[in-house]
Amino acid sequence: MNKSRPTRIAHSAAPLTGQHAHEIQAFSSLISMPIALAQDARRKSVDNLNQLLADTITLRDLYKKHHWQVAGHTFYQLHLLFDKHFGEQNELVDMIAERIMMLGGISIAMSADVAEITLIPRPPRGREAVPVQISRLLHAHEIVLKEVRTMARQATGDGDDGTNDLLVSNLIRTNEAQVWFVAEHVVDEPLVRADGQDDDGRNGA
Ligand SMILES: [Fe+2]
Fold first, then answer.
1. How far is the CA of 187 from the centre of ligand 1 (A)?
2. 62 Cα–ligand 1 center, Å
3. Distance in Å, CA 140 to ligand 1 centroid
4. Is 40 left (phi over 0), alpha (psi -120 to 50) or beta?
5. What backbone phi and psi angles, to 5 degrees, belong to 15?
6. CA distance 27 to 204
7. 39-186: CATH topology
8. pLDDT digits (tens, 9 = 90+) for 123-143
9. Which residues contact residue 41 at a Cβ distance below 8 angstroms, ignoring those fewer than 6 apart?
């Protein structure tokens, strides 16, 4: 008797394009992960981290906008500084998104979703002067730092030490350092002549 064999799938080198199927995990769902952390704790961390992800993506992109559009006599140094901060924020984006996935959640990814969620005000499409660019960046950093401090305390309370470490060691430290470098550019210090110097360079007092 000829027993029926499973149907053999014919393999081909041709790419199988245009495929569609239902999602394998809905956005609002949480899959279980064997990391000895309660589902409720993972749920709270995932929700917090997605808010932080949206705001960090927005801050990252604000840096690239300003990298391109900066003008004036500090153009070169700010052009480079803004791109350095963009790169550091981009690393944070990846760390946050991957932390969400390892907790069993789903990280938001696309700009339309980010725009719906972020707390950072939308900038105009047009070009702004350096002091306005910097004010906008400092405001965005403070939004992030405020929420991160709250989220870090919550993660500790829930026993999610991994999330707390990410928030404190990476998010808080990086954002604080970037604020310092950016804020020093709007300190109103004279460029050439210190206060009180006369035309001969002597103290006029
Ligand atoms: Fe560039």
1. 26
2. 13
3. 21
4. alpha
5. -65, 140
6. 68
7. Ferritin (1.20.1260)
8. 999 999 999 999 999 999 999
9. 158, 159, 160
Q: Are 191 and 73 in contact (CB under 8 A)?
A: no
Ligand 1 centroid from CA 181, angstroms: 19
CB atoms within 10 A of CB 157: 11
Q: How far is the CA of 148 from the centre of ligand 1 (A)?
A: 29
CA angle 169, 172, 174 (to 5 degrees): 85
How far, in Å, is the centroid of ligand 1 from the Cα of 108? 26
Query: Nearest-CA neighbor of 173 among 139, 144, 131?
Result: 144
Distance 25 CA to ligand 1 centre (A): 37
Q: Ligand 1 centre and the CA of 82: distance in Å?
A: 9
Single-letter amino acid code for the residue at 153: R
Residue 1 has pLDDT above 50, yes or no: no
CB-based contact 48:112 (threshold 8 Å): no
Summarize pLDDT for 5-21 with one digit per residue, the tens.
Answer: 666 777 899 999 999 99
Model confidence, pTM: 0.91
Distance 80 CA to ligand 1 centre (A): 8
- Locus of tokens 């310092």: 180
Give the other-Cβ count within 10 Å of 116's Cβ. 9
